[in-house]
Amino acid sequence: MDDLLRAFLDTPRGTGLAVIALVLVVESGFLAGMLLPGSTAALAAGWLSVNRGLPLPLVIGVVTAATVAGAHLSWWRGQHSDAPAKVKGRLRRLLSRVFAGLRQHPLVVVAVAQCVAGTRTLTPRAAAAAGVSYRRFTVAQLAGATAWATVLVVSGTTAASLVPPLDPDLYATVPLAVGVLVAVVLALKLVRRRRAVRAVPAGAPA
Fold first, then answer.
1. What is the pLDDT of residue 62?
2. Does some domain include residue 77?
3. Minimal CA–CA distance to 169: which of 6, 3, 20?
4. Distance from C-alpha of 120 to C-alpha of 56, rounded to nearest angstrom
5. What is the value of pTM for the model shown?
6. Largest CB tally within 10 Å, which of 95, 124, 198, 204?
């Protein structure tokens, strides 16, 4: 185990930030990503900025770009999905209200949703299904993502400045643990998808 930790400590100092960026892309781009701690990852990026000597503007830029990339992936998946049309009952009425809010105030809803866990994944899909134009979605989401990333990363740097430096081994174990979590979430999603495909009877319409 010690040899493994030393190997990770020898990796470039941006490795942890790269893992955090991957977490943010998955969190906002895939439904399974709702299980990931996106806000905590952004705070951890601020901590890395202090303890690994990474430039603050660079860290904010990476965090913003990662969550924006995930949101755009989510928007694209929502545009190519017919899931909302299959919803019935109360959930369908609720979706109708959400769609109405997105159509009336798309900029506000999309921007604010970036700051709330869970809705970072769902709102881009809902916006696409509600017919919000890609241009308006892009402007609102970028504004919300920039503000969200800036506040959380700066908060992370403040917290890191107030506590003593942590054991250097954590520079390796924390990114490693987060990377394993991302891999597990993606593997579970892949297994469930394959089981769903196998469960479809032969000859049944796709």
1. 93
2. yes
3. 6
4. 23
5. 0.69
6. 124
Give a yes or no: residue 145 inside a domain: yes
Q: How far is CA 47 from CA 16, 24, 39, 57, 202, in A?
A: 11, 16, 13, 14, 52
Would 182 be classed as within a structural domain? no
Query: Does any domain span residue 159?
Result: yes
Reported as a single tens digit per residue, the pLDDT across 11-60 is 566 777 888 898 899 888 887 777 788 888 888 888 888 877 888 999 99
- In the chain, how many domains are there? 1
| pLDDT per position as a tens digit, 81-103 | 655 555 556 656 656 666 777 77
Residue 176: both structure tokens together: 């490693």
Q: What confidence tens digit (pLDDT) does each residue in 62-71 have?
A: 999 999 999 9
